[in-house]
Design goal:
By secondary structure, the chain is of the alpha+beta class. α1 packs antiparallel against α2 and α7 packs parallel to α8. The protein has two domains: 146 residues, Fructose-1,6-Bisphosphatase, subunit A, domain 1 (Fructose-1,6-Bisphosphatase, Chain A, domain 1, 2-Layer Sandwich); 104 residues, D-Maltodextrin-Binding Protein, domain 2. It starts with a helix and ends with a helix. The protein has nine helices and 14 strands. The strands form three sheets. Strands 3-4-5-6-7-8-9 form a seven-stranded mixed β-sheet, sandwiched between helices. Bound molecules: D-MYO-inositol-1-phosphate and calcium ion (CA) (3 copies). Keywords: Hydrolase, Magnesium, Metal-binding. It comes from Limosilactobacillus frumenti DSM 13145. GO terms for molecular function: inositol monophosphate 1-phosphatase activity; metal ion binding.
Length: 262
């Protein structure tokens, strides 16, 4: 095994151990009262649990991978994100689906990714309430609870379910209402992590949303490893450190969606 692989294997094992404690901590914090604040709008929430999780992940990453840089949603919010992609960059979404976390106490995820020189390398998505840990290492496979995932089955759009962000759907930008009409059905889960998991396991054929770097960072590792299309809605390459309108889909669904977009 080459030195870099050995280092990554050690990092990967330590991060998986960290996720075990993170789940326990999150479940404990959920039992007690926590505060909820708004950020850019009344639907854009942050809780003390988001902040505590991000703080905990940062503290652990400093020990696990000391020479890396760390970008976290709650700290980077409102701040400029460093533009360089050189070296190890960790991207944290401490609670993905904060609205679900607050209103449902369910259907939220904790996400973390490592990019090395701009390449999506390690990805982790923890579906906290189902205790399902999704983990992926570029060229080494994608797993759920250590069981390897295979590439999702290709279905025609007419037989597959799609998930489209509600703002994009309601504004019908890119003719997305037609995509919803042509598909077998429309689903919306309210957490990019949970929605992406559904694509990776073949339960959705496509997911389309406007996403910030931390919403997609982990999922992109899986999408690339599983041979899915992952690109901007107008077919461009995604930028790691900015917001993008993103399509993640099986090849067949992606092609059929491409024919419908305007
Ligand atoms: C949000 C969720 C939601 C998506 C938003 C995200 P957050 O993440 O993933 O499903 O539609 O764009 O911002 O803010 O709860 O981490
Ligand atoms: Ca948020
Ligand atoms: Ca979040
Ligand atoms: Ca998020």
């Amino acid at each position: 095994m080459i030195a870099d692989e050995k280092q990554l294997q050690e990092i990967d094992s330590a991060v998986q151990v960290m996720f075990g404690s993170l789940r326990e901590r999150t479940l404990t914090l959920m039992q007690k009262p926590f505060s909820v604040d708004t950020k850019t709008s009344q639907n854009d929430l942050v809780t003390t649990v988001d902040k505590a999780n991000e703080q905990f992940i940062r503290e652990q990453l400093i020990k696990i991978d000391p020479h890396s840089r760390i970008i976290g949603e709650e700290e980077s919010y409102g701040h400029q994100i460093a533009p360089s992609l050189v070296g190890h960059i960790w991207i944290i979404d401490p609670i993905d689906g904060t609205m679900n976390f607050v209103r449902q106490r369910n259907h939220f995820a904790i996400m973390l990714a490592l990019y090395i020189d701009g390449q999506a390398t390690l990805g982790y998505i923890l579906d906290v309430m189902n205790d399902d840990m999704y983990h992926c290492w570029r060229h080494h496979g994608a797993f759920v609870n250590r069981q390897q995932l295979s590439a999702p089955v290709e279905l025609p759009l007419s037989q597959g379910l799609v998930d489209i962000n509600r703002y994009l759907l309601l504004s019908n930008v890119h003719n997305l209402q037609d995509v919803a009409r042509q598909a077998a059905g429309l689903r919306m889960y309210g957490s990019a992590g949970i929605e992406l998991i559904h694509v990776f396991t073949g339960q959705l054929s496509a997911y389309i949303s406007r996403l910030k770097p931390w919403d997609l960072a982990a999922g992109r590792v899986f999408a690339e490893e599983l041979g899915l299309d992952v690109k901007t809605i107008d077919g461009r390459q995604l930028s790691v450190l900015s917001s993008n309108t993103v399509l993640v889909a099986t090849k067949q669904a992606s092609q059929e969606i491409g024919w419908l977009l305007k």
